[in-house]
Structure formats: structure tokens, C-alpha cells
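pls read this stuff:
=====
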Amino acid sequence: MYKNLLKRVFDLILALAVLPFLFIILAVVGPIIYFQDKGSIFYNASRLGKDGKLFKMYKFRSMKMNAPDLRNEDGSTFNGIDDPRLTNIGKFIRKTSLDETPQLLNILKGDMSIVGPRPDLPEAKSIYSSFEARKLKVRPGITGYNQAYYRNSVLSRDKFNNDVYYVDNLSFLLDTKIIFKTILSVLFRQNVFIKKNIYTGKSEGEE
């Protein structure tokens, strides 16, 4: 019952409760993002949702306009503390995870959940094993089991496996643990960045 009904109810209640804070953050951070390079405040990217359906995920833009795509050796998006693509405000909102707060709108639309596997790029669907594809059985989340406990410290395959672990063990108790662990990892900035990368030459490099 929790997975099929109550989880969605809790998502809506929490998202509506926190929504006023999003507007406060937008009022403060939005103008800074714009005036640093006169670019868009938001970054909207296609992501894989439940059952593989594509949706537009909302974020505050943390990178310079038309930033190149940097990838790690496993093909995942590079996210480094010395990333030259980040704007000054982008470094701050990335460290504090404020760049993710517009995804509250995705929750209200029904694209995402508070807790769930982090949504992958559309091309990830072609590399999932049948086991890994099970992560698409639930809505992706603003935070999740991997995001809370490992964040960016593990490779893509490990992230996929952690996502499937969450799907197989989804419960109110696990979601509650993940939310509190996420708060701690954000406050103490644990595993925010990774170091190794490969430049692929692509554009639109925002994660």
C-alpha cells in the first residue's frame, strides 16, 4: 500500500510544504545565476522516468552556458571540485545541493518522488542489464539510497545496483532513513565530487 499509494501522498504533502522555500531560493539564487554570465537560470534536461518514460528534469543551472560534456571513465557525468565548467554560484549550489530544489516541480507533476533512484540520461537505457533496468519500476527521486549513502563516490554500475536494491526493499522506513541520511551528507558535504574524467567533446554538459 505504501509503494502504490501512500508514497505518492507523502510526496505531494512534503513537496507542497517545502515549495515556499523554493521560491525564496529562486529569489536569492536566480538573479546571481543570471548576472554571472547572462544565461538561463534553469537547466532542463531529458531524463529516464518510471517505466523508461522520458521527462524534463528541472535544476538551477550550475555550469556556464554551452559547457562541454566531461565524462568519467565509466561513461558517467564528471562532477569534480575543480570542474572549470562551473560558475562561481554553481560551485556553491552544487555543494549544497540547492541546484536540485526545482525538482519539487517534477514531484508535483508526477515525474519524480522525494526518494527514488536518481534519474539517468536517456542513453543509459541502452546499457542497462535486465537486472539494472529494474530501477525503472519506480519514479526517480530527488534523493535516493545511492545518493544518500554514496553520492558520487561510486561508479555507474554500483549506482545501478544500489538503485535496484532500493526498488527491492522500498518501504516507509527505508525512505525515512534515506531522507535523514541525505540531510547529513549535504550538511557535511560528503562524497559531493569525484576526480577522474575524460573529455568527450560533447555539448550540454550539465549533470
User: Anything to note?
Assistant: The mean pLDDT is 87. Residues 2-191 form one domain. The chain has six helices and six strands.
